[in-house]
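Thread: Modeling a multi-component assembly for a lab meeting

Hi all, long-time lurker, first post. My supervisor asked me to bring a structural picture of a complex we are working on to next week's group meeting, and I have zero experience with this. I have the sequence lines for every component (762 residues in total). Could someone generate the structure of the whole assembly? Inputs are pasted exactly as I received them:
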Amino acid sequence: MKKRYLLAPGPTPVPEHVLLEMAAPMVHHRTPQFSAIFGEAAEDAKYLFQTKQDVLILASTGTGAMEGSIVNCLSPGDKILAINGGKFGERWGKIGETYGMSVVWHEVEWGTACDPAAIKKILDDDPDIRAVCVQASETSTAAAHPIEALAKLTRDRDDCLLIVDGITGVGVFPLPMDDWGIDVLLTGSQKALCLPPGLALVSLSEKAWKFADQSKCPKFYFDFKKEKKNLANKTSAYTPAVSLVIGLRKVLQDVKEDGLDVVHARHNRLARATRAAAQALGLRLCAPDSPADSCTGFFVPESVDGAKLVKCIRDEFGVTLAGGQDQWKGKILRVAHLGYIDTFDVVVAISAVEMALKKFGHPVELGKGVAAAQEILLEGY
Amino acid sequence: MKKRYLLAPGPTPVPEHVLLEMAAPMVHHRTPQFSAIFGEAAEDAKYLFQTKQDVLILASTGTGAMEGSIVNCLSPGDKILAINGGKFGERWGKIGETYGMSVVWHEVEWGTACDPAAIKKILDDDPDIRAVCVQASETSTAAAHPIEALAKLTRDRDDCLLIVDGITGVGVFPLPMDDWGIDVLLTGSQKALCLPPGLALVSLSEKAWKFADQSKCPKFYFDFKKEKKNLANKTSAYTPAVSLVIGLRKVLQDVKEDGLDVVHARHNRLARATRAAAQALGLRLCAPDSPADSCTGFFVPESVDGAKLVKCIRDEFGVTLAGGQDQWKGKILRVAHLGYIDTFDVVVAISAVEMALKKFGHPVELGKGVAAAQEILLEGY
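Re: Modeling a multi-component assembly
Sure thing. I ran the full set together rather than chain by chain. Output:
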């Protein structure tokens, strides 16, 4: 009967009514019944992506859509700029190298955003760069990159795409694909879409589809042109992940009903509340100058073992937060605001952190972080 | 309140207790709680595959595992033999061509099995062939290929693999990977495993892993060596499809409890009953000489429009069977025996076919096919 709370940046909690919807009897994927569901989900996904372009629905997790974006838009030998400010930025470069591209690694200090002026200089100096690959929200550091500013650099260059991993960005904060001129935008089901993992969504601008016409990378399962053709018939090239697509349709209906602005505002309020709480507790934020609203990261006090803290909060208190990855392993805590997370989840997360810090002998005034969060959380009411 | 029956060869019905298990609250994938689930599922999958080798669990449908098998075991320029006796055999060749392989197309008449003697001659004549790619059960024609005989041809050749698409074979009829010497065996979740689509399972022999060490194809999402390394820690390289893995563990427990022999025997009995019914009704079997136990295909009478028949059975009677694909579109009906399908599902399918044929003006003695099926179905009791 131990009560559990899932507050890590993905997979995120799935709303109960969506779990039940996905637990309905299986339907065949090549039927008018399912095509209607698939078509509705794909249509509503355009609202989420703020685009008039098709949004492809893939049976894979987000990394598959990242790989798909590279192999569909580019060719071996192409030069790409990988903005590497964390574990996921690094992934862009690794995928590019896997497919024989010439990767220009742009290293960004963990916890900071890239500087658009620096990117502008790189692009100006090297006209061979065919794509800028970046995260909207670098989940490993809880930092956001300035996508709008980057899009201003690429949208007037016919020969350079902006490819954005929006896995913890889409549905969290504004990323109006068409308005800003993002060329490739992708996300995964297990973040703001509050579904189980196993679906990826990706959309390409007209410019990106032109790149796709020229692409020489091999692709079969992640063949976007084939998917686009099938989408016109409200289906996918290969068997879709039926139950997840059923959940997707439901969640997107909910997002539309709430309104994207409201959804973004909720994430922002929860994020600001969590940041305020961390600061009230004297905990240093991971990305103080460019925090993402997807999750908030903060350093644990140096006297405390972060890995043990996460474990205590999870196994003893029943609250699953995330620790750090790679260079920040054992050093940080991350609290998610993604998807089906609301006011009192922040209260739960912060109070769990306070209690754990006290248990670990760190001087902490219980309730101080909670109070700071509450001040901001009240804005929502 | 219309009652519906799903009897097409995938996605197949998901048992109610498995639907509920997958509807439990989401769990984080990097926790001891989920690792235990993932580890158990992977372990029990070895029982299903009848192998001592690792079984990788991928967040994709079966086609992803087919592509993965090619790109992990082979290199551009390699020569492969694609046994093309249907829509899925054709897929092997297309994947090979996508990755720059030299594909030897071995055409097999739809509805028949390949002849091992012919394959032996091809391999003897062309020692450059690095892999024989085949379906255990070619779902589009309802025919089975002679995997044991093919394995006898490849297992003593150090330089040639047998790569088997077991998507509608594994868990249906015997495919003892280690005993027969199958080098790559794969399946998908939405067939005999009676889960929603979205998971693929694949296992490689020691010989296939040696090929993987030499492979020069690019791969990232479907990187089997990376998956194998992660599996040792009871996890996957990228986010696993958590809810489906939870379902997989449950289904595999059920399969182990029933026993693989019993599961195979059930599929065989249902298949034989359905074949007998079709023949009693004077319907010509699609694969009379080498029928697969995964599904039974039969031609609709020439006076009847097969597409309309499928539609009537589905939309009016509520029973989803499958029609034909490609060259057999509108000409055949397929009834599945895969997974969570039992005695009275055959009765439902056959009686629906009888009633529809009568409705379409074809002379049919109602109950005659059902009776023929019942004779065989009774063997199970």
